[in-house]
Amino acid sequence: MPTILTHVPVSGGTPNRTALEALTRARQIATENGWTCAASVVAPEASGVAESLGAYGAETVYAVSDAAFEQPLNAPVVDALEQVIREAEPEIVVFPSTEGVKDVIGALAQRLGAPALPDVSAFSATASGVSATRPVMAAKFRADVEAEAPEGAPVLVSVRAGSYTAEEASGAGAPEVIDIALATDASSLKQTLREVVSAAGGGVDLSDATVVVAAGRGVRDEAGRDLVQQLADVTGAAIGASRAVVEMGLFPPEAQIGQTGKVVAPDLYFAVGISGAIQHVAGMTGSRTIVAINKDADAPIFDVATYGIVGDLHAVLPPLIEALRDAKA
Ligand SMILES: Cc1cc2nc3c(=O)[nH]c(=O)nc-3n(C[C@H](O)[C@H](O)[C@H](O)COP(=O)(O)OP(=O)(O)OC[C@H]3O[C@@H](n4cnc5c(N)ncnc54)[C@H](O)[C@@H]3O)c2cc1C
């Protein structure tokens, strides 16, 4: 039976949220076409997560467990995914469009001789190929793209965060877990990890966060940044930033959201002192609820906001944080 395979990256033992959204869509496509819905997990300990994917409709899960995945290196991941794909022989491989996937999908396409449709916001598939929609030019336009798999190779598709809703499958059973031993010879690795530089410091992962507090130039200084941190703490949010405050050095580059930063799609997005330039909005319009705080009532961010608060963030945030603390208590 034809197979649609979804790759589910794991961080801290938890499956990536965007991957569960993609797996839900893959399950719908499998049901429409009478295909098998499969998944892959590549992690130091893949089996536990592999079992849990049955709830999302994965009938078969290919699990590659190896200590090599403890280090953030691409080469063993590409090797593992190539092994899984050659074993599963899927028609389509679906990925979440994460930073890690962006690093490996091109290499996989080249090794497998497979066409790739990266960073799509919607896709459908039949036996004759994959049709997808890709936001382009800072999401100002949408391009309709299609790919047909050559003989013996799948179509690779990566899906932007927030494009679909992750939903458990009704009546799903335990999946068949197929363990695959990583065949990479560690001595053949051409990459050497010298140092891991991370400013995230144990905070919530931005791309996978369900709540994001994003700071713009209105935040301006330490006092503003402290308010952003407090709002993030009380809401359990990851902190993002506009390019303006990244360039000011107030927030690290990995916090940047937008056309040249990360694409996020949390359930709740606070835009604090952000004007709403198209290049910023391109990275956050998939957010389900957007709360904008800006002292300029004409700021374009209010055009995409679900709720808008017009006012100085130094006056608006302290009572909001207090009220949220009280509500939590
Ligand atoms: C090729 C290219 C790529 C780009 N990529 C990105 C990208 O990936 N991400 C990105 O963010 N930008 C990107 N930019 C930059 C983008 O065009 C904007 O310059 C940037 O997003 C503006 O950031 P900002 O909203 O923080 O600042 P501003 O546009 O200066 O807005 C600051 C806002 O804060 C409000 N404000 C000021 N003080 C307060 C206060 N005390 N309380 C409440 N509100 C206040 C102001 O009313 C204003 O609306 C890119 C630009 C280019 C040309």
UniProtKB/TrEMBL annotation:
Q: Name one GO molecular function term.
A: electron transfer activity
Assigned keywords, A-Z:
Electron transport, FAD, Flavoprotein, Transport
| Residue stretches making up the Electron transfer flavoprotein alpha/beta-subunit N-terminal domain | 4-193
Q: Is the keyword Cell inner membrane assigned to this protein?
A: no
An annotated GO BP: fatty acid beta-oxidation using acyl-CoA dehydrogenase
Cofactor mode of binding and number, as noted: Binds 1 FAD per dimer.
Residue positions annotated to bind FAD are: 217, 242-243, 256-260, 273-280, 294
Q: What is this protein called?
A: Electron transfer flavoprotein subunit alpha
